[in-house]
Write a structure and sequence with these properties.
Strand content: 5-15%
Number of helices: 17
Number of strands: 12
Number of domains: 3
Shape: elongated
Helix content: 40-55%
Order of helices and strands: HEEEEEHHHHEEHEEHEHHEEHHHHHHHH
């Protein structure tokens, strides 16, 4: 009785060989009905049959007659595969392919990959190619090569303009260049991609196609050099706008979507700023950016805070600053409670809501970005968090769509939520004081 070989032992014995089959004639006059799986280093032919796997000295085989009904034989052989016998399945796939049974071959190759994802014979039988240790489809391999060329061009261009080669990481939706040299570029880029995925989950579709750009600079001097060599090429970047950007520590640009920041005051603050400001970009660019009908700033700021909280699980926000009396904008409307370094924003929000010191929501809705203090940053975050946690995300999508379509914010809000800002305010205050 032929002995079935364990799959692990068989894998070690086999060397890839031509898939030949069907009825093998042996010197002793007996026959074996099966398909050739491969050869062993000892010169043996391994044959898969409808009952077991046999290992026969190749010199003992005198002939082979092809199957008269390969489709039926395939089903018998496939049903007889040993548990997790990836090499047997790969050999059967090669046999079926030679016999003109492409669907059967795919079935066997896919089973081999299911059992052994790195099985080269099966992967190649399915059309995969190996690139940098990964099995890719031809289309994926071509995209990988194109991405690598684009990444090299991106890094080389910045090296030429800044005099230092960045660590460049491409994700599906970001071109991330990092000049900090601390080896954390890939992790930072991964967080940016997480922010994009979070926006898609909330908004229901991609805010943009292709890739946005993010550049992390080491210090304000390098940031200023980027503005002079790269940033000033952005459409419309000139005059007072250009001069204002030079004096800042970071830039956010909508068309095309670009972020650039220095690592002032720290690398962690810079990364938090990237994730936060990505929230601004993602909600603003979803469904198209409209200069004529911009979103109220609480939507942008709140969405940015939501991103920091979701992606970085931070207790603070870079927008609160560190001991900055005038806060985010040019107002001192916030109280001393907010003038602390690295505040716990949820605790501050809860305390401020309990003291009833937040602005009425209709007043928050009317504020421009320069009128925001850290207190309004926290209020915006809590309001967006309330809308996303307590209401259906589809309502926020509806509201944003209506505003971008030209509707006034209070009207769009009532249409989307079935309540006015004044009417929903008690529920938001209860949420803000609940310790969420």
């Amino acid at each position: 009785m032929p002995r079935r070989l364990p799959a692990v032992l068989l894998l070690a014995l086999l060397a890839p060989g031509r898939a030949a089959a069907d009825v093998f004639t042996l010197k002793n006059g007996t026959t074996v009905d099966g398909y050739e799986v491969g050869k062993t280093p000892r010169g043996e032919t391994v044959i898969g049959t409808a009952k077991a796997v046999r290992k026969i000295a190749s010199t003992a085989i005198t002939g082979m007659v092809p199957s008269a009904d390969p489709a039926a034989d395939f089903e018998r052989y496939f049903a007889a595969l040993g548990k997790k016998d990836a090499e047997g399945a790969a050999g059967l796939g090669a046999w079926a392919k030679e016999r003109g049974l492409p669907d059967a071959a795919r079935k066997a190759f896919e089973k081999a990959v299911e059992w052994s994802p790195d099985n080269a014979r099966a992967r190649e039988g399915l059309g995969f190619v190996r690139v940098e240790g990964a099995w890719l489809t031809p289309a994926e391999a071509e995209k990988r090569r194109a991405d690598e060329a684009a990444r090299e061009a991106f890094a080389s261009g910045l090296e030429k303009s800044l005099g230092q080669r960045p660590e460049a990481v491409f994700t599906e939706h970001w071109r991330y260049a990092d000049l900090l040299g601390d080896g954390k570029a890939a992790d930072r880029a991964k967080d940016m991609e997480k922010a994009f995925a979070e926006a898609v989950a909330i908004l229901g579709s991609d805010p943009w196609k292709d890739r946005a750009t993010a550049v992390a600079c080491a210090g304000k001097e390098q940031y200023g050099k980027w503005i002079e060599t790269e940033g000033r090429r952005l459409p419309g970047m000139r005059g007072p706008l250009l001069e204002g950007v030079k004096k800042a520590t970071g830039l956010k640009w909508h068309e095309p979507p670009v972020l650039c920041r220095s690592d002032v005051p720290s690398a962690s603050a810079m990364h938090a700023a990237f994730v936060h400001t990505a929230g601004h970009l993602l909600v603003n660019l979803w469904g198209g950016y409209s200069r004529e009908a911009p979103l109220p700033f609480w939507v942008e700021e709140g969405f940015g805070g939501w991103m920091e909280d979701r992606i970085l699980t931070t207790r603070s926000s870079f927008c609160f600053g560190t001991k900055v009396k005038t806060g985010y904008g040019n107002t001192t409307r916030h109280g001393k409670d907010w003038d602390i370094e690295d505040p716990d924003w949820k605790s501050l929000i809860r305390m401020t809501a309990q003291k009833n010191e937040f602005l009425p929501l209709d007043q928050l809705d009317a504020l421009q970005s320069g009128e925001y203090s850290p207190r309004e940053v926290g209020q915006a975050f809590s309001f967006v968090a309330f809308l996303l946690k307590e209401k259906e995300p589809a309502r926020l999508r509806d509201y944003v769509t209506r505003v971008k379509g030209g509707a006034k914010s209070p009207v769009a809000f009532r249409q989307a939520y079935g309540q006015s800002l004044e009417e929903i305010e008690p529920a938001w205050k209860a949420f803000a004081t609940s310790g969420w």
